[in-house]
Amino acid sequence: MESLLDQAVVSGAKQAQVFKAAIEEIERLPIANERDPDPADDVSDDGIEEPANDWPAGSA
User: Fold this and answer.
1) What is the rounded distance in angstroms from the CA atom of residue 38 to the CA atom of residue 56?
2) What is the pTM for the complete model shown?
3) 36, 8, 38: which is closest to 22 by C-alpha?
4) CA angle, corner 40, sides to 36 and 42, nearest 5?
5) For 1-59, what is each residue's pLDDT tens digit?
6) DSSP single-letter state for residue 56
7) CA-to-CA distance for 5 and 13, rounded, in angstroms?
């Protein structure tokens, strides 16, 4: 986190603005967590399609 904030300030943003934006985003995290606690657990309804293996060298 420190590195990210430092990069923003070094790139020209004002330190107070960077801290304010970071705090606002951190405050939004509980809301996002309530909506979807673990997005990685979401299962797609679409089947996973395997890539076509019908190109000339595909059956080597």
Assistant:
1) 41
2) 0.51
3) 8
4) 65
5) 889 889 999 999 999 999 999 999 999 888 877 877 776 766 666 666 666 666 666 56
6) G
7) 9
